[in-house]
Design brief:
The chain is of the alpha/beta class. Helices cover about 55% and strands about 10% of the residues. It is built from 10 helices and 5 strands. The protein has a 5-stranded parallel sheet, sandwiched between helices. The longest helix has 22 residues. The chain is globular and about 45 Å long. The N and C termini lie close together (about 5 Å).
Length: about 210
């Protein structure tokens, strides 16, 4: 089997990160999330905080620009250019790293619009994990020690941000569109371990002949 990549998009509180980490352990491959920010910082020479801030912000003018079409993701501009630290260029640096990972190793990538970044790659399995609000609220309450109302607000704001981020960097595509993924799983119905095993089985079936 050649190297493969599993991209994971997930609703907040659905257990997507936990599923990704357990899947990585089961398959014996690395899982990348916040590590991508560190890798982008090392490659570009820019402070990691710039990537963290860019990852956390997408408001105002950025959202207005999102209706005007897809940002230019074709190339990373040079350090001498004024927009080297723009949000789009920082995203492009991350995307370049994601593509390089897809060419060189088997791994799991959480978020970062990775399923769209790797849309033209044939060694990718893309997964979207979601669950009913009550299930997500319970997990968030347990993880953060917060009330149900607080958990609901966290889920609403985080999922809205992820949808806006995805729409902006993919030129208007929907983050929750099931057609954009190989698998769309309900983690409450399938279970955390069930999701891990199902994804692993799908990967084996898809790439076993290669």
């Amino acid at each position: 089997m050649k190297n493969y990549v599993i991209t994971v998009a997930r609703g907040f509180g659905s257990g997507g990160k936990e599923i990704s980490l357990k899947l990585a352990q089961k398959l014996g491959i690395p899982c990348y999330y916040s590590q991508l920010l560190e890798m982008a910082s090392e490659q570009s020479g820019l402070n990691k905080s710039l990537f963290v801030k860019s990852d956390e912000r997408l408001t105002g003018s950025a959202l207005i620009r999102s209706i005007k079409g897809k940002p230019n993701r074709d190339a990373v501009i040079e350090p001498t250019e004024r927009d080297f630290v723009s949000d789009v260029n920082l995203f492009n640096i991350q995307s370049g790293i994601i593509r390089e990972l897809a060419k060189t190793q088997s791994c799991i990538i959480i978020g970062k619009c990775a399923n769209d970044v790797l849309l033209d790659f044939d060694n990718v399995v893309s997964v979207y994990i979601e669950a009913p609000r009550r299930f997500c609220e319970k997990r968030v309450m347990e993880d953060f020690g917060c009330t149900k109302a607080e958990a609901g607000r966290m889920i609403h704001h985080t999922d809205k941000y992820r949808a806006d981020y995805y729409r902006y960097y993919t030129g208007g595509k929907s983050w929750t569109d099931p057609v954009a993924y190989d698998l769309t799983l309900n983690s409450e119905r399938v279970g955390i371990e069930g999701c891990v095993n199902l994804i692993a089985h799908y990967v084996e079936q898809k790439f076993s002949q290669e």
